[in-house]
Design goal:
The chain has 3 helices and 5 strands; from the N terminus they run βααββαββ. It is an alpha+beta fold and about 130 residues long. A hairpin with a 2-residue loop joins β2 (about 60-65) and β3.
Length: about 130
Amino acid sequence: MSLANDIQEVGRVIDTLEEFGAAQGISPGEALRFGLVLDELITNIVSYGLVGRPDGVITLSIEHDEGRLRAELADNGPPFDPLTAEPTEPSGDVADRAIGGLGLKIVKNVLDRLDYRRTDGVNRITMEMKLKAA
């Protein structure tokens, strides 16, 4: 699916993932876990990588195969490799912490595989999550 460079698209992605999961027999909880990852990555692309870019392009493909959810998320923003980005470790009192910094840690903990490559000016993140047996 093609996404507009708009944070509101996250809701459409989650709705689509829920419908896809239901049609594929994926539990709502597993779809929610994968949706959390997609929410974080798409939000970061829109909020940081493509901010102020009317020419921003985001595409997403999702597949279910052999007990795994796989997806590729692509965007034409500046190069950003989530594998080399250091997640921020929380410190201090919860009320005093800056917002953000934990998203990539969550992404890396939920997924079983996360790969990044940049080809022809496009960031491509491929991800895979093993589904728990019912």
